[in-house]
Amino acid sequence: MLVCTALVLLMTPGLALFYGGMTRAKSVLNMMMMSFASIIVVTIAWVIYGFSLFFDPAGDGSGIVNKLVGGLDYLGLTGVFNAVYENLIVEDAAKQITAEAAAADNFPLMVFSAFQLTFAIITVALISGAIADRAKFGAWVLFAGVWVTLVYFPVAHWVWGGGWLGQLGIEDFAGGTVVHINAGAAALALALVLGKRKGWGKEPMRPHNLTLVLLGTGILWFGWFGFNAGSELAPDQTAGLAFMNTQIATAVAAGTWIVVEKLRDKHSTTLGVASGAVAGLVAITPACGFVDPWAAAVIGLLAGAACCYAVGWKNKLGYDDSLDVVGVHLVGGVVGAVSLGFVANYPFLPGQNKGVLMEGGQWSQVGLQILGPVAVGLYSFVVSWVLGKIIDKTMGFRISEEAEVAGIDITSHAETGYDLGSVHASGVISSNGPVSTVKKVDA
Q1: What is the pTM of this model?
Q2: Where is the signal peptide (predicted)?
């Protein structure tokens, strides 16, 4: 679990590279800073009160309040030090849980807390991709702290911490609903609040460094095995299944994306293979431990095709989701979550509700797998939109037009990602450092 925790944390710097390469050169540092700021802000919030709001030690969500949010048992991580996370998983219906077997599955609650912290961190970081090039850094930091408190901690409790969605029987193995739909809905809300980038739709805004994008993709792919297989919380057959299904769906989705590109655009791109891989990773996340390998391939196929087309929605609907968070994470998360209603089989977890296409499957599970994304998506969107509006009306969420044209790196951070000597795309950098033609007040 310690290794898996480190792998998931590595995903956020990987995301910084992935997102950083997709932005324009004058925004790369700000984009990466938003990911690293997420690590700082969420960690502090988690230690003080986040884990306590997420995790109900009783695990039964008793009482109306505990159906919505955890108690106050672990404020400041008090009480976590000597506690044990009891992960009692029965993989064989006939197997009896003995004291020795239970002890073998248990591990320190502090390790469980650290593992869950890394999920909260990357969920917040994912949102930043929708508002690249134009968000005040200070406003983003404030939004990250309040959003993780009002949205992520309660939603994670709803599904994983003993809350109402989990009690209803909604399945989400590693975060399709909790992480990706949650972040995707918030990203759409912020994109609408901040509006379009200056020149959007009129001038090219291509990724400035596809090498960074591919490097970030590789790190994300690598770390995602900790994300998905680690979510079993035990070294067993289900963890192995989640590991293999992650690989299958990701490879199929990446291949599907570039095939669609070839058929539609007459060429396959490196950005396409990177985006397809991430789409596959997103879609298999909620299902990886609950489906057979053939179903993982189907999920990857659907995600690769659906997300490839979905990224074009912003052009048709007129919202500027800078780095396709909605098209990949919201849509991919929905594909994966809803697919469980059809193909869930739970090879090593007897007694679970199966997908309607499987023997013994029930239509009720389809309804539940639709309810989860709808409830979480609407809640995240509304709260994010209101929070974004409040920040925008008070301190301002968007940098000035002058600063946006000059480049957010130089105006907000007094740095540039590349030393280009006396020539800079924004015209505000010289070989001796920044020239004060733009006031650095947007931070």
Answers
A1: 0.91
A2: none
Assess if residue 65 is contained within a domain: yes
Q: What is the pLDDT of residue 350?
A: 64
Which residues does residue 434 pair with via DSSP β-bridges, in sequence order?
429
Q: Does residue 175 sit in the same domain as residue 88?
A: yes
Q: Are residues 278 and 414 in the same domain?
A: no
Please tell me whether residues 360 and 424 are part of one structural domain: no
Within a domain: 314: yes
Query: Which residues form the domain of 426?
Result: 401-434
361, 423: one domain? no
Nearest to 128 by CA among 267, 12, 266, 275: 12
Give me the number of domains the chain comprises.
2
The string of DSSP codes covering 278-324 is HHHHHHHTTTTTTS-HHHHHHHHHHHHHHHHHHTTHHHHHT---TT-
CA within 13 Å, CB half, 385: 11
**Is 443 within the bounds of a domain?**
no
List, run by run, the mean pLDDT of 10-residue segments along the chain (443 residues): 97 98 96 98 97 80 76 90 73 48 73 97 98 97 98 96 91 96 98 94 90 98 98 92 98 98 96 98 97 97 97 91 96 97 83 84 92 98 98 97 94 90 46 42 43
**pLDDT score, position 346:** 80
Task: Give CA 406 to chain center in angstroms.
Answer: 30
Residues 314 and 405 grouped into a single domain: no
Interhelix angle for 270-284 vs 237-265, to 10°?
Answer: 140
Between CA 247 and CA 68 the distance in angstroms is 34
